[in-house]
Fold this protein.
Amino acid sequence: MRLGGVILAKSSAAPLKHGDRAVFANISAKVGSIGDNGLGGWYGYRASKSALNMLMRNVAIEYKRSCPRAIVALLHPGTTDTRLSRPFQRNVPPEKLFSVDRTARQLLQVIEKLQESDSGEFFSWDGSRIPW
Ligand SMILES: NC(=O)c1ccc[n+]([C@@H]2O[C@H](COP(=O)([O-])OP(=O)(O)OC[C@H]3O[C@@H](n4cnc5c(N)ncnc54)[C@H](OP(=O)(O)O)[C@@H]3O)[C@@H](O)[C@H]2O)c1
């Protein structure tokens, strides 16, 4: 399970009790979307990311009470050229395989645009929303 993020969220609540905008961003994955799953497979990975999404949705609700200026976001980075994706890159067209730098830039752009009303939502690297 993805409990590390929840433990971090718990200990971050006190420092986030301030009047400034803050973002608690979590790297999820589109494969964690139940609504988007049209392919099957990857049981453990899909389930663990779906669990992360649910856990962070909970955190977003509780942060609204304890530190309302903090935005909790779930982010899909897109397929990125890392050790994790290397075994699956064969079928990925080159334009859909991002460098780590590009992914970091894209995610920062999404994070910068987040509004308080976006807290607890699931976004792709291009800022579009992903269904649960
Ligand atoms: N790459 C993609 O295409 C892609 C797509 C969608 C989502 N994601 C998500 O993006 C995130 C980063 O993945 P990545 O692609 O950068 O993979 P990666 O290159 O394999 O890096 C994973 C990182 O997590 C660390 N890690 C793994 N297990 C850990 C544990 N139990 N405790 C502490 N640290 C641990 C690893 O540390 P060590 O280096 O010490 O092993 C490594 O730094 C993941 O959440 C992944 O699910 C990636």
Summary: The chain has one domain: 3-10+18-124. Residues 20 and 69 are 6 Å apart (CA to CA).
